[in-house]
């Protein structure tokens, strides 16, 4: 089967094209770093089977972040039959760097010039035939989101035949000479052309160094050659080569581009400015949080939708129907209780999953998809940069944290977009401790929304802990925070179909992930209940609960919270409906539960990404901090003597 | 020759061009290169706080002070 790999910078439309080619759907968004995993899809073009591989965005061949590393390794290992390099038309001068490098690597490259409409709007016109002739590779113009030009990609993939005379970039004579003598010394196979192997070694590429050090007998001589070349220059070779490449690219572009100055200061530009300047940007951010999260997810999703589904669907129809069948046809008491009992997988698993969690999570993902596609998130990252610097991270971390308000498990995966291990560890820890996921957040917002003061105290207290713990762990973990750099994409009007599709895909992922856990949890709890283990655990948690001035029954939501955070919050919801919690107790319980250990799925991803040892340390600290946080609040509240 | 200054000393809404980068090696240099900040490139300074927002060609990029201070420009 022929392999086709899609590569390119972040945010140029690779995923949209991948979706078209495979009929599969991966989340596409207007911010860098959505595709952290490799997606594979299969499809047939005119009866011939192809494997398509979508890669995380990369700026250059020598990786800075983890996702770039992933893409680079993939390119070298998969031996692709065709590489589709997708670029953003208006930034062609910057993006051709990778094209030239891919050609130098020896890959059969097809250049996909996407977003051609945005380029036209900016007054850039292309002579693509001419570009294709110069580079010696097929060049296709597309507007992926509108489906224009995508058919041509299929045609080109199908009829691709190597053998044209390809563009070869000649660097300065002394560099060329070094390339020549190094490539003569290399014997190993790295999934790259000899020339590119030499070029990467010259640039001090770490991945290749490690490999070549093992494989090459003549490695010391290669090194000597590299050092000799380096001594000619004041700058890193990577930079020198980039400068030379840029000159060549500018020459190419001057002959294939026609740039007419168009000064368009449209609505988009104004809005773009308003969202990134702090004076207007921070109020806009507050509006986004208030309407997007509080009103839409909290009030509408967790309040209205949950209640509507519960009172108009579950209580009058679904529940009686199940009850009728279960008690009518199932004679065994144990099976009846396994399905319909207090911890039955229908009463607990099904109801929580579909009636409480589903509406909340779907409203959140819908909201998040709008923010992503509009290109708002990088602006948010920039505005928040100086705050995140204070806790040892940078603005880039905003994206996992914002996503964490939807699903912590996804967010921990997305911490891969952060640069250093230190930042990834810090972000994982703070995500697990302080960021409630949408399901939990929704339930808590709904629970506390009766009293604005409670809600404010909860919010400020969690933020305070986020600040203090972030600051402390930021200074305890060795290393420095890395500097912030990010591309700010233009604001784009999100297309409803894309937003819905993306929200649906995330929902689906979420459901596949959680439904089994919901059911297993209720079965485990049911066993615990039947055998009396549960009563014992709840009994032994009693002193902890009373030290937090909470009723002992709160032990149950906490225990549930260990399986899933939202599960615990939903347990609190039950207790509030039956009026067994005072407002103070509800506040303390909400705070402790927000801080408490994340759900099983998140713990699993944590272990996978950060390792067992670090995860255990994190979890112990989280349990400790959660109870200390709750304890402190339970001591402060009576002193303040507030009327909640 | 026009006097050279780091971009962090320039005012908002000015147009400058990159003369050189202070860094001779390391991650910062690589990041700037990847984003297209190379000698000869024209930059419009759109914003200076809380981060520097620069317009290079048709791209807007945001940089913090630590990385932006290495860009030496001439008006």
What's the gist of this structure?
The complex is a heterodimer of chains A (644) and B (75). Chain A has 644 residues and is an alpha/beta fold.
Shape of chain B: globular
Q: List the uncertain runs of chain B.
A: none
CATH superfamily of chain B: Ferrous iron transport protein A (FeoA)
How would you state the average pLDDT of chain B, rounded?
89
Number of helices of chain A: 29
The number of helical runs of chain B is 2
Quick one: overall form of chain A? elongated
What's the number of extended β-strand segments of chain A?
9
According to CATH, what is the class of chain B?
Mainly Beta
Helix proportion of chain A: 55-70%
With strands numbered from the N-terminus, the spatial order across the biggest sheet of chain A is 2-3-1-4-5-7
Please state how the strands of the largest beta sheet of chain B are arranged side by side.
Answer: 1-6-2-3-4-5
Please state the structural category of chain B.
Answer: alpha+beta
In CATH terms, what is the fold-level topology of chain B? SH3 type barrels
Question: How much is the average pLDDT of chain A?
Answer: 86
Assign a percent range to the helix content of chain B: 10-25%
| Terminal-residue CA separation of chain A | 66 Å
Structural class of chain A: alpha/beta
Order of helices and strands of chain B: EEHEEEHE
The end-to-end distance of chain B, rounded to whole angstroms, is 11 Å
InterPro entries (chain B): Fe-transptr_FeoA-like (IPR007167), FeoA_core_dom (IPR038157), Transcriptional_repressor_C (IPR008988)
Pfam families (chain B): FeoA
GO molecular function, one term (chain B): transition metal ion binding
Domain Ferrous iron transporter FeoA-like (chain B): 5-75
């Amino acid at each position: 089967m022929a392999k086709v790999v899609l590569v390119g910078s972040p945010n140029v439309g690779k995923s949209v094209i991948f979706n078209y080619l495979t009929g599969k759907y991966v989340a596409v968004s207007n911010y860098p770093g959505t595709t952290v995993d490799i997606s594979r899809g299969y499809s047939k073009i005119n009866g011939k089977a192809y494997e398509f591989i979508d890669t995380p965005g990369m700026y250059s061949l020598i990786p800075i972040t983890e996702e770039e590393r992933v893409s680079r390794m993939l390119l070298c290992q998969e031996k692709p039959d065709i590489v589709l390099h997708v670029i953003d038309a208006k930034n062609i001068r910057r993006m051709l760097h990778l094209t030239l490098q891919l050609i130098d690597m020896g890959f059969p490259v097809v250049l996909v010039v996407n977003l051609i409409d945005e380029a036209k709007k900016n007054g850039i016109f292309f002579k693509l035939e001419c570009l294709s002739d110069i580079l010696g590779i097929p060049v296709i113009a597309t507007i992926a989101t509108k489906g224009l030009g995508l058919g041509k990609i299929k045609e080109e993939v199908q009829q691709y035949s190597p053998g044209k005379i390809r563009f070869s970039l000649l660097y300065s004579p002394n560099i060329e000479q070094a390339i020549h003598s190094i490539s003569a010394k290399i014997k190993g196979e790295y999934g790259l052309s000899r020339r590119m192997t030499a070029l990467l070694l010259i640039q001090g590429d770490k991945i290749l160094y490690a490999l070549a050090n093992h494989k090459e007998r003549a490695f010391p001589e290669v090194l000597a050659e590299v050092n000799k070349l380096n001594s000619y220059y004041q700058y890193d070779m990577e930079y020198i080569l980039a400068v030379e490449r840029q000159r060549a690219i500018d020459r190419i572009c001057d002959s294939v581009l026609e740039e007419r100055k168009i000064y368009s200061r449209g609505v988009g530009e104004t809005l773009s400015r308003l969202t990134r300047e702090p004076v207007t940007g921070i109020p806009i951010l507050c509006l986004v949080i208030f309407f997007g999260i509080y009103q839409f997810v909290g009030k509408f999703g967790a309040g209205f939708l949950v209640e509507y589904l519960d009172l108009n669907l579950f209580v009058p129809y679904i529940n009686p129907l199940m009850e009728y069948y279960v008690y009518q046809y199932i004679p065994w008491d144990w099976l009846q209780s396994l399905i319909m009992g207090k911890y039955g997988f229908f009463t607990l698993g099904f109801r929580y999953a579909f009636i409480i969690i589903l509406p909340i999570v779907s409203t959140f993902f819908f909201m998040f998809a709008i923010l992503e596609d509009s290109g708002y998130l990088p602006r948010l990252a920039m505005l928040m940069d100086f705050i995140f610097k204070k806790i040892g991270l940078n603005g880039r971390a905003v994206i996992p944290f914002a996503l964490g308000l939807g699903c912590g498990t996804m967010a921990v995966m997305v911490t891969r977009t952060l640069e250093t291990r230190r930042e990834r560890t810090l972000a994982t820890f703070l995500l697990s401790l302080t960021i409630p996921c949408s399901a939990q957040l929704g339930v808590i917002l709904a629970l506390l929304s009766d009293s604005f003061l409670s809600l404010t105290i909860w919010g400020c207290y969690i933020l305070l802990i986020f600040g203090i713990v972030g600051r402390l762990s930021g200074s305890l973990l060795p290393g420095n925070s890395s500097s912030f750099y990010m591309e700010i994409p233009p604001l784009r009007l999100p297309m409803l179909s894309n937003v819905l599709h993306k929200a649906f895909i995330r929902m689906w992922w979420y459901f596949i992930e959680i439904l089994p856990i919901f059911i297993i949890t209720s079965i485990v709890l049911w066993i615990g209940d039947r055998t009396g283990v549960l009563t014992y655990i709840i009994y032994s948690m009693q002193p902890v609960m009373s030290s937090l001035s909470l009723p002992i029954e709160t032990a149950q939501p906490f225990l549930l919270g260990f399986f899933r955070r939202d599960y615990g919050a939903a347990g609190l919801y039950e207790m509030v409906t039956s009026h067994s919690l005072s407002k103070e107790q509800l506040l303390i319980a909400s705070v402790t539960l927000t801080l408490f250990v994340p759900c099983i799925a998140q713990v699993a991803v944590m272990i996978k990404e950060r390792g067992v040892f670090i995860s255990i340390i994190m979890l112990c600290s989280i349990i400790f901090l959660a109870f200390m946080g709750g304890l402190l609040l339970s001591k402060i509240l009576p002193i303040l003597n507030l009327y909640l | 020759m026009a006097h050279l200054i780091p971009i962090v000393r320039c005012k908002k809404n000015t147009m400058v061009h990159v003369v050189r980068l202070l860094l001779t090696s390391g991650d910062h240099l690589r990041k700037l290169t990847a984003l297209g900040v190379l000698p000869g490139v024209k930059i419009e300074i759109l914003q200076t706080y809380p981060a520097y927002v620069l317009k290079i060609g048709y791209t807007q990029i945001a940089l913090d002070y630590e990385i932006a201070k290495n860009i030496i420009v001439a008006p």
